[in-house]
Design goal:
Elements (H helix, E strand, L loop, with lengths): L8 E6 L5 H12 L3 E3 H7 L4 H17 L6 E4 L4 H9 L5 E7 L2 H15 L12 H13 L5 E4 L5 H18 L1
Parallel strand pairs: 1-3, 1-4, 2-3, 4-5
């Protein structure tokens, strides 16, 4: 794939531990496009409803600066503002990759990451930690639509990347 070619927003969704950040970083290097992560913006604002709105406004401003293309958006896929994007943007303007994994796999990965990162790992005002977030939102997450579904349970990071890149390459060729 020509990394200079215009691409739609690559929206990577998944629950904590699914591999969103890993995939987004790798694709960003190859495609030479920025990663916009709602988590990074949430950390900059108070954990309140207004802070959440401010974080999303910051993400929307970045998407607008990128002219609603040529970037990777990393989120859980569960926020109503993401549903707005899916509805508001033309179908071909956003390509959604959904990373799926079992609850057991997600819990294992969260534990491993927490051990490596250490310290307090507060998730949001609504959920005390990522375990609770996964437990409560696993079923709603299963209902989120996507253009590409990748079950990461038994795949290596390289295999997830290869599968995602193949899907993006075929989509960009058709775009």
């Amino acid at each position: 794939m020509n990394s200079r070619k215009t691409i739609p927003i690559i929206h990577i969704v998944g629950l904590p531990g699914a591999g969103k950040t890993t995939l987004a970083r790798r694709l960003s290097k190859i495609l030479k496009v920025p990663v916009l992560c709602i988590g990074w913006h949430r950390a900059r604002f108070p954990k309140t409803p207004i802070g959440e709105a401010d974080a999303w406004i910051a993400v929307f401003k970045e998407l607008s600066r990128n002219r609603w293309k040529n970037c990777i958006l990393e989120t859980t896929g569960l926020n109503s503002r993401e549903a707005f994007l899916r509805t508001a943007l033309p179908f071909e303007q956003m390509f959604t990759i959904k990373l799926e994994a079992s609850r057991k796999t997600l819990a294992h990965r969260i534990r491993k990451k927490k051990k490596n990162q250490g310290g307090q790992w507060f998730y949001s005002a609504k959920y005390k930690d990522k375990y609770e977030f996964v437990r409560k939102l696993f079923k709603p997450f299963c209902k989120i639509p996507a253009n590409c579904y990748i079950n990461t349970n038994r795949l290596t990071k390289a295999a997830v990347y290869q599968r995602a890149f193949k899907e993006i390459d075929s989509m960009v060729s058709a775009w």
